[in-house]
């Protein structure tokens, strides 16, 4: 095993007259861990394999330098995991339908079907140890417990790779019990600025560019939204504009069409689920202009207390939408609840009229048809902060219970402490904290 050390060799080297410095031997993992992680025959993952992955990642994050990560998860195993998961994700629609009603596995039950509870999780931002607490607190994915993750698995925190890979492993193991949606940080631009690219390069060295490309390709396949039990809409940012094809005045009466994407807030209108289903999500950086605006809106938009739709000038991409838009969307599709994420305590402290994120969630709109909730699952965020004063926010997840699924039960939790000591992968003193003032010129569109 690559992590074993030879005490006799180390002692002999210490007695040598050579001036070559002797490296401290690396810690040996506990015997119960199977290191390095292997890829099972025919790719059939098991609960034991998942448990070993969790334990190995947890142990290595506390005992090994990041550069030793390939000795825990060889690049060939990573490639296999990402390949299988990517194929699954790319086959899913832009807006996945999550059906909690499924056949009852208990043969002694008189009922032929049962409903699973649904756990919705917000931003994680590479806080791997907090994710482990969340999974244990809520209970692992199972036949009667479905998970929906609202994106932003990577960046800012130091264990984005472990976080993302563990969730991919769960997806491969139980594809109908875990749904991974895309966040705005699952992009080339954000990962190049907020640390994930550098994290991968440090952990995989000369294989880093290869691994980073694999991750970007997988990001492209992540669905944008979900509808739960026909009554709950979840997405990272939230609502989106209409980009309906309308006849051009120049070619009136002809078959030619053009896209109406006027940025004038007076002309903006809510998009439809049909338009969402047809959007092209396979772009590394969702565009902020042109014909394919829906992915950018879904990933970057924010709620507002002001009525109507308006360009999100603070972020430079996406929309701001008011309570009237929430009511219109819920009523049109007979929904009861919108659960979105995207805003941590740093972003919320600058949002006039909206509650802060101290408890990991806020209820932003209460309208006749239902509610709009913002959910943030990274406690004590961000991990690296330039000022001595921290937000000390809690994280939260919510549970939707049958039969109606429209009354979210919030569970708040504090950060796991102490966190393993690690260097940041981005200049957190210089990089902005709330995704504002984006350098749009450097965001590449396809």
UniProtKB/TrEMBL annotation:
Coiled coil: none annotated. Residues 1-21 have a biased composition (Low complexity). It holds the Pfam family Metallophos. Gene3D superfamilies: 3.60.21.10. Its cofactor is Mn(2+). Residues 181-186 form the Serine/threonine specific protein phosphatases domain. Residues 1-31 are annotated as: Disordered. InterPro entries: Calcineurin-like_PHP (IPR004843), Metallo-depent_PP-like (IPR029052), MPP_PP7 (IPR041754), PPP_phosphatase (IPR051134), Ser/Thr-sp_prot-phosphatase (IPR006186). Keywords: Hydrolase, Manganese, Metal-binding. Transmembrane segments: none annotated. It comes from the Eukaryota. Its EC number is 3.1.3.16. It catalyses: O-phospho-L-threonyl-[protein] + H2O = L-threonyl-[protein] + phosphate. SMART domains: PP2Ac. One of its GO terms (molecular function) is metal ion binding. Belongs to the PPP phosphatase family. This is Serine/threonine-protein phosphatase.
